[in-house]
From TrEMBL:
Domain MaoC-like, residue spans: 539-639
Molecular functions per Gene Ontology: oxidoreductase activity, acting on the aldehyde or oxo group of donors, NAD or NADP as acceptor
SUPFAM superfamilies from the UniProt entry: ALDH-like, Thioesterase/thiol ester dehydrase-isomerase
Name this protein carries in UniProt: Phenylacetic acid degradation bifunctional protein PaaZ
Domain Aldehyde dehydrogenase: 12-499
Region (Disordered): 460-484
Assigned keywords, A-Z: Oxidoreductase
Record-linked Pfam families: Aldedh (PF00171), MaoC_dehydratas (PF01575)
Keyword Transcription regulation applies: no
Amino acid sequence: MEKLKNYIYGEWVEGTGNGVPLYNAVTGEQVAVSDTEGLNFEQALDYGRTVGYKNLSSMTFYDRGEMLKKVALYLLERKKKYYDLSYKTGATHVDSWVDIEGGFGTFFTYSGLAKRMLPNTSFWVDGDTQKISANGTFLGTHILTPSEGVSVQINAYNFPVWGMLEKLSTSLLAGVPSIVKPSPFGSYLTNAVFQDMIESGVLPEGAVQLVCGEPGNILDYVQDGDSVLFTGSAHTGRKLKSMPSIAGNAVRFNMEADSLNCSILGLEAKPGTPEFDLFIKEVRNEMTTKAGQKCTAIRRIIVPEHLIGDVQNALSKALDQTKIGNPLSRETKMGSLVGRQQYEEVLRKVNILKSETELVYDGKHELVDADYENGAFMSPKLFLNDKPFEKNISHDVEAFGPVSTLMPYKDAEEAAALAKRGKGSLVGSIISHDENFIAETSWKMASQHGRIFVLNRDNAKESTGHGSPLPTLMHGGPGRAGGGEEMGGLSGLHFFLQKTAIQGSPDVLKAITKIYQQGAEKKFSDKHPFQKYFEEVEVGDSLETAGRTVTDADIVNFSNVSWDHFYAHTDATSLSGTIFDKTVAHGYFILSAAAGLFVSGKKGPVIANYGLEDCSFFKPVYAGDTITVYLTAKEKINRGVKGRNIPSGVVKWLVEVVNQRDEVVCVATILTLVAKQSPFIDLNVKNVQKMLNGLTESTPALWGKMSPQQMIEHLEQALLVSFGEPEAEKCFTPEEHLEKWQDSLYNHRAMPKEFTAPFLPQDGSLPELTHKNMEAAKLSFMDNLKKFVIYYKENPQAEHMNYVFGKLNKEMWELMHKKHFTHHFQQFGLI
């Protein structure tokens, strides 16, 4: 039987013991063996702290975000084999989708957050700068850097893929290396995904390790700077947290434990209302998805006392209709528990619940293509606690399977009180259309819940459901739920980051944070900052504008254009008791006038105004006042660009407007999209001619079969096709791939060297030469380049077919030629 290998200190290592046998939850057949005996855990942790930390922490947040995306894409291409393994854990296709593609989706989400919101540096400035001296020569701020240690991540058996990836998404993005320790049960699926992560070659050495089996004494070796993330039972979590190595050192500990989550049906949601039907559907889904093996599943069903009978009947019918059995069958809606050991444990808890509450529904389902003897199947079970304020067992005991308990309440006060008797939950839901009931109940139960999910007819179509944690929202809960927090967008990174206060002069803070601070030295040059590409802009680049004297006519005209007739701008007789001496210029006029002063009218790399932040007006500006503007590059943010957008970054500019007395009247931060410098040659005729001068008949090709003249004639043919002489008869790229190929023209990735043009002969031979020699070919090529430029000036709306990219317009043809020329000029060493 295959023994799962562990991946530690950069090697695949097999345990030396007998290990733990792992079984197919559906058939009972053995699948694999997990074994960690003989592993050197101390060495593994040290390897992560040294090699892994050095490699990960030196990367920027932006680059780590790109790393997550590449890993997720690599795994997504191989998803079929993960589904095949997931079915062996008892998971249906829907269960598997949540686990597998939900895990990939978390990587994609965090990659997107990194590209939009995190800096292209290995540290992260947190919060605003604080002015802590009267004259602003002494400032303070905070930076976040990767915690110098390794993260040990202990995951539960119910989500072998998502459980691993949701923790790795934040630790890897934060720059902290991790050791993944999945539950042995289902670890063969975790192992398969992890193997491909390593095989992708995307992750730097030491970034991740895998311990596939029993944890042994791995936690004995954690030390200051390390972290432990645990998902599992609260009992086990508390034991781990109290270990001397954790409690006695500065080891960060995050626990996400199972909890007795509830769902509350609103007082008004009687049978026949959309909310009643939604409630039955949601509870049934949460009882049967993953066979109830979810830390977010509904364990307590809180229902108005007058609707208990209606809910019990409707829910029983819904559960009766749930097909249970082999996940490979299309009929199956609920699979099995993960194994016989878990089955016995759930049965034990069911018997405890029976001691105080009534079992009112015990499904007698016939299994689809499976049997109860070999598989770990359990039918849904519904209990009734008729006195939930007296009988506490429903609030204390969790059966981690398809088991839930009905309980009545009288009013919103009681509903919230019952919800809180779970002593801390990951999630509670309210299904109601009564906003007052929802609001009152939410406020009262919030202190004992990590998430509150509200469902009704208004959001049902787009709702993600009671049991689905989302990457952008916090996953965790107080009390019994562990008191931990995972994900929550960028907040999830803070657990892995060290926050450090930085104090110093404006110039020192600028040097450390790479963000311009008011009072720091400005850098002036003859070149207008808006004429610089994103790569050329440096923090501190500044412009001092000419002055502009504001007139009464400016104030009147802006009032008429903007329709802003606020009395302070238009009625001098109404200013008594105000802060104004006379009619004042509009604040937005000052900002607009400032823009008029600092923008560059000449076309350049600045693509668009992207936004405005932190705009404040400090002093009034009256007719006769003269304003001058200081524009300074404050911060640069790398930006991921998709589709047909020019590769660009965001530059934040500090705008300081002063009056003739050198008093600051307005400060704002504007954001601009600034194009990145293209790595491809311009279609400038003189530049192209200059490069071609270095090409001779004997110039060797660095790759490919083309001779120099064949290359020139190949480029000329592409030029001719781009203005329809001749018109290409067809595109060889399948329609379903065409949009992706056309989008690729806009990015800055070079054309592949080994691409075989589909319009060339299949035998690899090249077309015969059409010009008598190289010089004639060059002359003809340059004539047609000039013709291309003129053609699209005269016909800017023209479109012509390309053999590979389909029908292209002027902009796309220009992009194609730039890439194409660059590709072949590099082929012959001309660039």
